[in-house]
């Protein structure tokens, strides 16, 4: 069986998880979240979302300790429910992680334009009411290609880069968060949750923010995607704990960022700003602090893009190795051991998505949220199913109250999937949602790759696919 190199330790796994979760979304979307839920409501939504996603993380922790192979969702779905569920969960997560690449690339050009006004250059065209500028597009494309080059060099170099920027981002953030709580004002936070027309708190807005948290917590699952590449001496139990720790740490980060932004300046004054967090700190503390915020955002863009590329390519590699998609995706670089065919695939979609500009960010987030919820549903339910099918199988990390956690996480994932699809329809105002078009096209691509792999699947010996997917002998 084609295998990936084993070089990653615990520090790298945490930076892969936390660094892929916390990127630039909190800088870009804070104004929308505040308009819906206010600073306190946003903080509550992300703390609740983090607690819920940590339940899913617990499921991943147990399953990853049982099956420490590349593929994660695909492996768990395969052992619990069979090949069809495996492919559905795996292909959905590939969509989510692939969508992250153009999302962060577009965001990079957006942040740089805020740091250096006018860097975007002349307008080439507009899409969904947003201008796509020549130099901004060049930055987006150049960053996407560089990200691919970084991953061509292999997991060890990409992981070290992830470490430096993840911990650098945390250090920078502590500076301006501290300034907000020491030099800001709690009066700026009022009202903590917007007032509804009925006169009470706008709880519906809090639920709207809660509904998108699966996207903004996406990334912790990149840790089990890379379990196969863990260094000798790194236990499966330790990695399971790191999965949950990365989610909880990100939940605290998001909550603190919302409250700190509220302390920095009256939040009603910045909800319409292009980059509201930077605008709040500019009002409260001056331009140099706003630039620190944007620098943290750039670091976050790099870590999220790098982590998503690692996760998506490992999952594509695993699906190709199991012959669920064409085995061409198992091709590795002769010296670095990187899955080059999978990297090329993600790059193609990253480059195509770059041409959407800022108008493409909302549909990308919406599609990614729905795809993530489907994969989370299958993986969470797999804990319950495997407790029934394999009660005696060793579980280096075993969840307390595992069946209850599994069913609660699966039920919540299904509810959030329904909420995401419902929101697509509402936002489309009666027309066919763009997000559904993307999902249908992605499904067709997956079906095409499935058919391409059919001859290779037919040649597999009985039990060979199971051994490849879940590592069983």
Helix content: over 70%
CATH second-level architecture: Up-down Bundle
Q: Regions with pLDDT < 50 over 5+ consecutive residues?
A: none
Shape: globular
CATH topology: Amino acid/polyamine transporter I
> CATH-wise, what's the superfamily?
Amino acid/polyamine transporter I
Please give the domain count: 1
**Which secondary-structure class do the elements indicate?**
mainly alpha
| Mean pLDDT across every amino acid position | 84
Q: Hey, roughly how much beta strand do the residues contain?
A: under 5%
The total count of strands amounts to 2
Can you count the helices? Answer: 17
What key phrases describe this protein's structure?
473 residues, mainly alpha, Amino acid/polyamine transporter I, two-stranded antiparallel sheet, 2 strands
């Amino acid at each position: 069986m084609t295998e990936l190199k084993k070089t990653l330790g615990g520090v790298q796994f945490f930076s892969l998880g936390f660094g892929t979760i916390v990127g630039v979304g909190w800088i870009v979307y804070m104004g929308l979240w505040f308009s819906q839920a206010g600073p306190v409501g946003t903080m509550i939504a992300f703390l609740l979302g983090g607690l819920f996603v940590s339940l899913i993380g617990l499921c991943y922790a147990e399953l990853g300790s049982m099956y420490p192979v590349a593929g994660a969702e695909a492996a768990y779905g395969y052992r619990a429910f069979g090949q069809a569920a495996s492919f559905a969960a795996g292909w959905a997560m590939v969509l989510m992680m692939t969508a992250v690449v153009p999302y962060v690339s577009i965001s990079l050009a957006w942040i740089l334009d805020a740091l250096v006004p006018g860097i975007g250059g002349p307008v080439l065209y507009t899409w969904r009411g947003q201008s796509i500028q020549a130099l901004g597009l060049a930055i987006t494309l150049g960053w996407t290609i560089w990200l691919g080059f970084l991953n061509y060099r292999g997991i060890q170099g990409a992981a070290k880069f992830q470490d430096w920027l993840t911990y650098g981002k945390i250090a920078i953030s502590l500076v301006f968060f501290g300034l907000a709580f020491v030099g800001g004002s709690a009066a700026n936070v009022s009202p903590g949750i917007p007032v509804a027309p009925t006169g009470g708190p706008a709880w519906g807005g809090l639920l709207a923010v809660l509904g998108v948290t699966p996207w903004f917590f996406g990334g912790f699952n990149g840790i089990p995607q890379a379990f196969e590449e863990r260094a000798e001496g790194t236990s499966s139990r330790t990695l399971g704990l790191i999965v949950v720790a990365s989610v909880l740490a990100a939940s605290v980060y998001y909550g603190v960022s919302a409250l700190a932004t509220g302390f920095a300046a009256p939040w009603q004054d910045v909800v319409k700003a292009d980059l509201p967090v930077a605008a709040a700190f500019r009002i409260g503390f001056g331009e140099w602090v706003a630039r620190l915020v944007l620098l943290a955002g750039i670091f976050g863009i790099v870590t999220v893009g790098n982590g998503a590329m690692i996760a998506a390519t490992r999952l594509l590699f695993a699906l190709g190795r199991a012959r669920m998609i064409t085995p061409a995706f198992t091709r590795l670089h002769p010296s670095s051991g990187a899955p080059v065919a999978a990297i090329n695939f993600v790059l193609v979609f990253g480059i195509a998505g770059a041409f959407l500009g800022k108008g493409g960010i909302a549909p990308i987030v919406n599609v990614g949220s729905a795809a993530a919820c489907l994969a989370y549903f299958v993986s969470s339910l797999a804990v319950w199913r495997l407790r029934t099918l394999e009660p005696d199988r060793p579980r280096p990390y075993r969840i307390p109250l595992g069946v209850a956690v599994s069913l609660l996480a699966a039920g919540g994932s299904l509810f959030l999937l329904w909420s995401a699809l419902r929101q697509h329809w509402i936002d489309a105002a009666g027309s066919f949602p763009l997000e559904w078009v993307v999902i249908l096209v992605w499904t067709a691509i997956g079906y095409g790759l499935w058919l391409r792999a059919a001859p290779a699947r037919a040649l597999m010996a009985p039990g060979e696919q199971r051994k490849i997917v879940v590592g069983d002998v």
